[in-house]
Amino acid sequence: MLLYSHDGTGLGHLRIVLGIAIPLALRRPDASILLLTGSLEAHAYELPPNLDYVKLPTMPKRRLYEGLPAGRPRPSTFTNVVYYREAIARPAVEAFAPDLVVVDHAPAGLFGELAAALATLNAAQPRPELVFLMRDVTFGPTQTTKLWRQEGALDLLDRVYDRILVYGDRGIFDPIAAYGLSAAAAAKTRFVGYLRPPAPVRSADQVRRVLCAVDRPLAVTTVGGGADGADLLRAYLGALREGPDLGLVSYVVAGPLLPDADRSEVAALAAALPDVTLVPFDPDLVDVLHAADLIVTMGGYNAVVEAVHAGKRPIVVPRTPGSEEQMIRADRFARSGLVTLVRPDELSPARLLRAMREELERSDPPAATLPFDGRERIVEELLASLDLRRPVPLPT
After folding, report:
1. E strand or H helix at 135
2. CATH topology of domain 2-196+373-388
3. Which of 283, 279, 347, 340 is nearest to 308 (CA)?
4. What residue spans in the chain does CATH classification 3.40.50.2000 cover?
């Protein structure tokens, strides 16, 4: 089995794909599972012995490749690094000769880097099964359809992929309608529900004791990988400075990819405030989310889903500028009463402080529930596909 996670920036898709690959590897120890990823942080996760990865050149380090010749013209500022990613991915895919291929988020790979490998796999005999995983919101509708048309992804969804599994809820956002998928693609699309986060390892009481928040409100702020989270971190720490009467104990996860200059500034701001714990990364963040009285986060898939699954109503400040993905997700969740939306053009310490006060004063729980069995359903479907491809013993 081969999995692909594009990982341009951040940790979100790596976490999603590993959350599927690891249980597959554990339940099928006889299967060889290979992950293609460009993430800088793949080494940080403990992997089962039958799960390995091929590291693709990392997009944040693309300047390393700017002076090198590209193999063919591309309508992209990332010409060189994408060429080298493709040059590594294609022979790896062909040599591994998988029985089952799972591609997350980008049907043709990042900037089309997987298209040639997919064409080879589609023509192979025997042909592997090809599965595309789609999150609830890819990008904004116009951006998504334009990008997919340029990269030939719509044709892949129509002709090459055997199944399309959406880890989301059609009632929150319908990509079939929003992205104008064809009848052929729609017929093989299934909505499996949101991806359930792992269960907490520690109890809420244990977390609160460690953070000295036994009898005080605990606030958690997280910005995912952190590459573009500095503005929210500054606004949150500014809100603490303006609202000492809240008496918060703060746990702030700045992300391993926060730029060094921003990290130094944020560290200085946090050091000047009482009761603030600042960490770059926490593999057990779910534990802290369950213990929190207040959550402030950006609008990435994992961050929002994990907070809502913990029974909280997070304050969500979507990423800007960039794709509309986080804004759409935050808006749809806010309409369902699941999050409080602070628009990025409104972000300031004062605006964030007001939202924090309002949330701490609320006594009503989030208004709706979501299906959270997406991971389990994806794993079961992939296990069934692997079972169908078990070698049949020859008669003795």
Report:
1. strand 129-135
2. Rossmann fold (3.40.50)
3. 340
4. 2-196+373-388, 204-361
* Euclidean distance between CA atoms 328 and 318, whole angstroms: 9
- Which amino acid appears at position 41 of this protein? E
How far apart CA 163 and CA 204 sit, in angstroms, is 39
Question: For residue 320, is pLDDT > 60?
Answer: yes
Amino acid code (one letter) for 146: K
Tokens 């590993």 sit on residue: 18
Contact predicate 130/162, CB 8 Å: yes
Q: 316-323 long-range contacts, Cβ below 8 Å, gap at least 24?
A: 316/340, 316/341, 316/342, 317/232, 317/235, 317/342, 317/343, 317/344, 317/347, 317/352, 318/343, 318/344, 319/228, 319/344, 320/344, 320/345, 322/228, 323/139, 323/140, 323/143
Residues 6+ apart with CB under 8 A from 196: 309, 372, 373, 374, 375, 376
Which pLDDT tens digit goes with each residue over 338-347? 999 999 999 9
204-361 fold: Rossmann fold (3.40.50)
Taking alpha carbons only, the member of 50, 44, 46 closest to residue 26 is 50
The per-residue pLDDT for range 278-288, each reduced to its tens digit, is 999 998 999 99
Say if residue 176 is exposed, middle or buried (CB neighbours under 10 Å; 0-12, 13-18, 19+).
middle
Q: C-alpha angle with apex 63: 58 to 112, nearest 5 degrees?
A: 50
